[in-house]
Each structure stands twice: as C-alpha cells, then as structure tokens.
Amino acid sequence: VQLVESGGGLVQPGGSLRLSCVASGFTFSSYTMKWYRQAPGKERELVAAITSVGGITNVKDSVKGRFTISRDNAKNTVYLQMGSLQPEDTAVYYCNTRIIFQNYWGQGTQVTVSS
C-alpha cells in the first residue's frame, strides 16, 4: 500500500489549495479514504472522509463550507479542495486508509497559511 500526497504550499489567508493523494497497492475503489491534519504541537485530527462510493462523512466542523473531499476511482486519487484558508489551517495534511484493521498513511504535505 502506498499513499502519496501533493499540492501543499504557502498560501495567503483567504486563498485556496487542492491537495491530491494517489493510492496504489490495493483496490482503491473498495475503501473509505480520509484526510487528516496535524498542526505543530497538536494531535493529528480527522478533516474529512469519503466512502468507496463517494459518500462524504466526518467533516470537521471548522472546515465545513470551506473544504471539500472528493475522489476519482479511475485515477486512484482522493482530493481535498480547500478554500477560505486561515492561519489555523496550517498543518501537515495526511491521506489515510484502513485495510483489515491496519492504518496506512502517506508522508504528508505541508500547508502553511500566512501573509
């Protein structure tokens, strides 16, 4: 199983970014995918999840209306479209899936929101 995130960077408050996570080594279309984030000195937290058939669940309250999770099963890719970014969104963002009680993580992509 391999998860590779991309799309992070430095953005000004109010800006947008789209994160991507390309998956390999398992049947992507069969599994729920999740985005987590971890800010410095804080615990990793769930941002949003999307089921194998595209049902969106577990969206963190503070990102509702600003972030959208989606997936393209033909491309083995899950996305996180982030808008109206704020400094408190600064974190390393991780892609995750759970297969037979085993969690798999990508290497993470840094998102920094600063003027």
Structural class designation: mainly beta
Radius of gyration: 13 Å
Residue share in β-strands: over 45%
What oligomeric assembly is this protein in?
single chain
Segments where pLDDT lies below 50 for 5+ residues?
A: none
Report mean pLDDT, rounded to a whole number.
96
What is the string of helix and strand elements?
Answer: EEEEEEEEEEE
Helix content: under 10%
The number of strands is: 11
Main β-sheet: number of strands, strand sense, barrel status? 7 strands, mixed
Give an overview of the whole structure:
By secondary structure, the chain is mostly beta strands. The relative contact order is 0.31. The strands form 2 sheets. Strands 2, 4, 5, 6, 9, 10 and 11 form a 7-stranded mixed beta sheet that branches. It has strands at 2-6, 9-11, 17-24, 33-38, 45-50, 56-57, 67-72, 77-82, 91-99, 102-105, 109-113. It starts with a strand and ends with a strand. It is globular and about 40 Å long.
Q: What's the SSE blueprint?
A:
Layout: E1 2-6, E2 9-11, E3 17-24, E4 33-38, E5 45-50, E6 56-57, E7 67-72, E8 77-82, E9 91-99, E10 102-105, E11 109-113
Parallel strand pairs: 2-11
Antiparallel strand pairs: 1-3, 3-8, 4-5, 4-9, 5-6, 7-8, 9-10, 9-11
